[in-house]
Amino acid sequence: MTRTRPNPSASPSAPASSPPGAAAVRLPLRALLALLALVLVVVSAARDLAAQRLPEAVVAVVDYQRLLSESKAAQSIRAQIEARRKRYQEEISAKEQELLEQDRELSRQRALLSPEAFQQRRRAFEEEAARVQRLVQQRRRELDTASAQAYAVVRDAILEIIGGMAESRGFNLVLPSSTVLLFSPKLDLTEEVLEELNRRLPEVKVPPPGN
Question: In this predicted structure, what is the pLDDT of residue 110?
């Protein structure tokens, strides 16, 4: 009988080969703890987000530009600003006429004056012209500032009226109609706000210069 002799090169302690995919992936303990902490953070954030649901939007719209155009307060502001602009323009026109006459007189005297005297008067004329130009800029700034301050009073009144309507009717979002492509007329508060604004604020006094 033929006996099979053991292969001396084979090691009795060598493990049998594992099938593909059977080997377990082992993470270091520190990495495993970090992964577990990340999972807990994500789960906690998702739970908080679910608990803090935003309320449903209850929307209304307002034509803000119409309020600034048709309200009695805004019309009173425009009338006062226009009257003040007219007074400023008359003041500036008078000074410009004086400069024009000075320039003509200086041209007539040029042949009669020495070069030094003419240059001296010319510099004085240019300084006066610069003062008039600064006055023009100052008057323009005064008009802009006064107009902005007066319209701020109207804006605050509009916001107060809309805030009261929102509180009493449950609106939590009021949009300017100019930014909305399509909306139901039932959502438009403009007419009601305009009526209440005219009742509360029929006129706004434009502040004087320097305020």
Answer: 87
